[in-house]
Amino acid sequence: MVTMIDEKEIVLQRLEDEFGKEEISPLRRKHERFEKKHPNAAENEWTKALALDALSFLDEEEPYWTFVAARLLLMEIYKEAADNRQVSIENVYKVFTEHIHKFVAKGLYNPILVNAYSKDELQQLAKELEPKRDQLFTYIGLKTLMDRYVTRDFDKKPIELPQERWMVIAMTLMQQEKENRIEKVKEAYWAMSNLYMTTATPTLANAGKTHGQLSSCFIDTVDDSLQGIYDSNTDVATLSKFGGGIGVYMGKVRSRGSSIQGFKGASSGVIPWIKQLNNTAVSVDQLGQRQGAIAIYLDVWHKDIFSFLDLKLNNGDERMRAHDIFTGVCLPDIFMEAVENREDWYLFDPHEVRTVMGFDLEDSYDEKRGEGSFRNNYLACVNNPLLSRDVVPAIDIMKRIMRSQLETGVPFMFYRDEVNRKNPNKHKGMIYSSNLCTEIAQNMSPTEFESVELENDIIVTRRKAGDFVVCNLSSINLGRAVPANVLERLIPIQVRMLDNVIDLNNIPVKQAALTNERYRGIGLGTFGWHHLLAVSGIAWESEEAVQFADKLYEKIAYLTIQSSMKLAEEKSAYPLFEGSDWHTGSYFESRGYHDEKWTDLKQKVAQKGMRNGYVMAVAPNSTTSIIAGSTASIDPIFQKSYSEEKKDYKIPVTVPDLNEKTTWYYKSAYFIDQNWTIKQNAARARHVDQGISLNLYVQNTVKAKDLLALHLNAWNSGVKTTYYVRSTSVELLECESCAS
């Protein structure tokens, strides 16, 4: 019979065998002291205490302690699962088939898992589970996955193990595949369980469960009417309830002092409606886990721009503040030129422009750098004496933007001309703004109210559906996938998984569901860029890093486009493919893809189509990069060692693969020349059809002229968007929805 003392000794010996006797000796001494103080402690208490002791040793010199703590946490997880499943610890994963049936019957898993898969198929998939891959997790990665994403019972106790979460997601996303379905499930499981990729947070949290949707976030365009404004708020609340992050474009809404039905000065402008959305963000939480997250975008030529830029400031009139939303500014080239040249800028009311000029200023863009429709329309407005306007130095607006950024981190910057020039679906619409995290750029249009009628005692409301953007995200873990040389195998299964999200999702806002089907937009992204640079021995501030970004993202783009093309051959192209830049070949020509490989792909795309109208977007990935044990998005690290803090814990963490070789390549974001970051991003942006969540990191002592120079550099470099300006003095909220 094995006693408790013997079991503890076995655990310590296993750790010594894996990590080394000398390395584990401090933990053994801690264990001896704990035993003296708590001789009758239960095994789970001992394991928790030992795991925390292991973490207390974690620092830049000894980063392996996170894996020691993770092993102890795994033992605790396995022990609890073994007790609940009434099997030995060695067999916790061997009852997968029974586990699925049991929790479908209890209403915790979606019945599709047993209706779509036979018992023989479930048993076959059970054999694919690889418990050893649980050892890839760091302590914080494993804890985050178990605390926030695995399936829990009605008492909020976890009933799922890590490898089961990966398999359930794979089964869910591949359920409708007609050929070689089990092989595709296995491939998806391989990709996730090896931490080569992660799905977006909603997919990670909700796939296989009985509630929740799978898409990350949504973007709405608000119509300039009372009905349109309230309908949009309802749609935003509905999606926020189901876990979606929201982007809202308000540029069509008339400004303060505009006329309403001919009555001059009647409009109160956009601020009251933004405050209403702020209340929605606070009131409608996301599945009871966190409050909603909404970003509002406004054009820099809108008459309400100054009050908009002050929305999040901590001083001034509280009636004109909205602290719980995020702001973004839509900037045309001609404005940035006016800033650069210290020229005047003209502010207009969009409703008045529409009425007097007969066009919507926001519906055009400059087709080429320095010339095009937007500047022609803007200058026509400037030269029309019938239009009212406010005239201000362009640099004054930029100063207000930067002041807000240094105090609050926002507004985000959306360079609308560059975005629309690179839009592969410009034949079907305009892109007015981005989403909550600035990486999505897809066609948008407002949903317009038409009528309310009474039909057989049923009130029927009719609205003409606009393009309500849906973000379907997933990301490659560069720090693991590139060194393992698996991109050619990984990206095709990843694109298939993303495409299947579109068909499986049940989006409660119908115009969003329609847009999803019309464009079939996906956003394959990346994280772990700094991790990859460090293990590759490449300094962030170097031309080598810029060239590496260029070549790597070209390869990812090629494989992603190729995968979407092959899916189109198998399942048909997206409905609006004909006439798109994909179809005409101008997508490839505008990016300088002229070699034989790209020319061949261009011809195949023209013949066979693209399954997805949009294919790449690089999201922030803050949470899922933690699970995967890598660095976030394309960002540099904050520090080599730090504490990950949530409301119920504070856990020490070190950057991935930290050792005597990589430490020299892990330079803190706040000490990196941000011009190198912009240069890298400009190189990769050529290969990304949508956007990239690009943060700028500055010291709180940064001079205005230096921050301005960064913004001008980003715009001049062809960067489409920038995300937060992260100052050392600002605490910023992360976007959970876009984490992938």
Strand fraction band?
Answer: 5-15%
At CATH's second level, what is the architecture of the domain at 217-441? Alpha-Beta Barrel
Cα(first) to Cα(last) distance is 47 Å
Shape: globular
Q: In which range does the helix fraction lie? A: 40-55%
**What is the number of helical segments per DSSP (H or I, 4+ residues)?**
30
What's the story with the biggest beta sheet?
Answer: 7 strands, mixed
Q: How many strands?
A: 20
How are the strands ordered across the major sheet? 13-2-3-6-7-10-19
Briefly note the structural class of the backbone: alpha/beta
Assembly of the depicted chains: single chain
Low-confidence stretches: none
How confident is the prediction overall: mean pLDDT?
93
Radius of gyration: 27 Å
What is the name of the CATH topology of the domain at 217-441? Anaerobic Ribonucleotide-triphosphate Reductase Large Chain
> What's the level 1 CATH class of the domain at 217-441?
Alpha Beta
How would you sum up this structure, described in words?
The chain is built from 30 helices and 20 strands. A seven-stranded mixed sheet has the order 13-2-3-6-7-10-19. It has a three-stranded mixed sheet with strand order 1-14-15. Among the domains are: 1-86, no CATH class; 89-193, no CATH class; 217-441, Alpha-Beta Barrel (Anaerobic Ribonucleotide-triphosphate Reductase Large Chain). The protein is globular, with a radius of gyration of 27 Å. The chain is α/β, with parallel strands linked by helices and 740 residues long. The longest helix is centred in the C-terminal third of the chain and has 29 residues, at 543-571. The chain is 45% helix and 12% strand.
